[in-house]
Input
Amino acid sequence: MFSLGMSPSNYPLFDKPDVWNNFALQRASQGLLSLFLSLKQTPIITRYEANSNMAYQLAKELNYQIGFESSLFSFKNSDPQPVLLILDRKNDPVTPLLKQWTYQPMIHDLFGINNGRVDLSRAPNIKPEYKEIVLSTENDDFFNKSMRLNFGDLGVSIKNYVNAFQDASKSNQKLDSIDDMKKFVENYPEFRKLSGNVSKHVTLVSELSRVVNERSLLYVSELEQSLACDSNNQFDEHMKQLGEMIGNNKIRSEEKVCCTLLFLLRYEKSASIANASNFLKQELLKHHVSQDSIDMIDVVLMYASYKYRQGDLFNNDNIFSRGKQALKRGLQGVENVYTQHTPFYVDNLVKLIKENKPNSKIEQLFKLLPTNNSEVAASKLSYKARNRLIIVFFIGGITYSEHNDISKIKSQLGSEYGINLIVGGTSIINSKMFLQNLNNSFFS
Output
């Protein structure tokens, strides 16, 4: 996965609704051109989400720059040649709002990962050597093997490592919980030498566990997943559950706002939504959520309500829906109630990969950039993504959970359809960064 590192402080994305800030457009195009040069591959086919002017602007700018700098891009592409797919975050505001339960996405969601570093300096009673933790798939075998494990399996994996050392040291100290393992590591300094990087992960997982319990995140996540994934209309029940959550003093303002957004996005076509929205905002204010945070609700809806999206985030009767049957056809493996959600683009991408003839519904979602390239015109392969390198780029940022699903697509469809995938975005976001991207813009 690649990121162009475009934060709202250095490269605010928007100039006005669905229009790039010029500096951000320049940075995005330069970043992608650099990627093409490093891969020695030039996309011969560019598709972009049909409702996104920003995706079209970027596709057009890339096409112009490649033509203008044709001498730089004169290398011979692999055959068949790569596809660039440009996606717009506004078509899926749900994924970045959800709590994550696999290791790497969870770390980024709760602490943030900045250039491979995690800042734990504010954690209580943290040892000096763990105030900043470095995560690297190249130099950290445990992280490389565990980064996509769900939180339950992660605890088992760490326990196995610690148990092995305990057997070797002939210690009888109990290891029934993450807290027990943390104490064991602290009592046996030599474990840190023998276990390589595992000891820092004991500390990191211990901190994750503390935050999950302290902020009641299992409770929060169950409602989030129900709002995002339940195909039945449960307006009244969800409204009741959300009201109870807003009134719960153990739940942080950030989680209350995210759940309110999920509810309003889920039911925004309901006849009762205006009254519900006003009531929920009053409840948030009553329970000490700041006015600035409440104002972000309207900002997100201004950016990504159903009037501005394409596809359907919630209706499982649609061919490109996120319903359970589509999920089963696309990617196998709903692991538990907290990880039901599959990012919206996954089913669309799977359809694009599997399609072997022109499909009007795919064409409606993913427009083909007009080009004068005779090779494309003659190829009759403009609708095919199979047997290709597919570069997927997210305007507005990509999440680690979306990267995880790219890995699943590669493992389940890669050999059968002969595809390889590279995914990236303007930045790698979590819920906080997603809202900041909009707060530092014309929307606010």
Summary: The longest helix spans residues 151-169. The beta strands are 2-3, 14-16, 19-20, 45-49, 83-88, 117-119, 132-134, 366-368, 389-395, 420-425. DSSP finds 19 helices and ten strands in the chain. The mean pLDDT is 84.
